[in-house]
Specification:
By secondary structure, the protein is α+β, with helices and mostly antiparallel strands. The chain is built from six helices and six strands; from the N terminus they run αββαβαββαβαα. It has a four-stranded mixed sheet. Strands 1-2 form a two-stranded antiparallel sheet. It is globular and about 45 Å long.
Length: 156
């Protein structure tokens, strides 16, 4: 999903800056049992994101999002797990390019909300500076910086 037109903030989009790669970037460590979200070359440590949100919720933007703004074709949806998820827990979105967000945690909650007929769910919207630190590989980080900057070129 990406942001719908009515929620698009042109000022924030115009204010988006080119990212500069940090040569000292250290990938977020993975411990046994950590939940990871792979999205192509990009892999985020979801366990650590959720721990940091729980420890510092005011540092993250909590908003209501429209369920129908997100696609429902999840390739790895576990039907038996769906009954046990709590749709009152916020999902997590990551800004993948200026003003465009992907769902990186909460696919089951989103699908259950859809099936229950809910119109909105709560979501933590993480900006690019917040979520890139949770990338688990240096090459993912480098590719992400290039991806972001290429998106800026496409739109300006």
């Amino acid at each position: 999903m990406f942001v719908k037109k009515s929620d698009f903030d042109p000022e924030r989009f115009r204010a988006a800056k080119k990212l500069k790669e940090d040569d000292n970037f250290v990938p977020y460590p993975i411990k046994e049992g950590d939940e990871l979200y792979p999205n192509g070359i990009f892999e985020f440590n979801i366990t650590k994101i959720l721990e940091d949100i729980e420890s510092n919720p005011l540092l993250f933007n909590l908003v209501e999002i429209v369920v129908d703004d997100f696609h429902s074709n999840f390739s790895t949806l576990n039907e038996s797990h769906l009954d046990s998820v709590d749709v009152s827990r916020p999902v997590v979105l990551a800004e993948i390019s200026p003003e465009r967000y992907n769902l990186i945690d909460g696919h089951h909650r989103m699908e259950k909300a859809r099936r229950l007929g809910l119109k909105n769910v709560s979501a933590y919207k993480m900006n690019v500076d917040q979520h890139t630190k949770y990338l688990t590989r240096k090459e993912s980080y480098s590719a992400y910086i290039k991806y972001w900057n290429d998106k800026l070129k496409e739109t300006f």
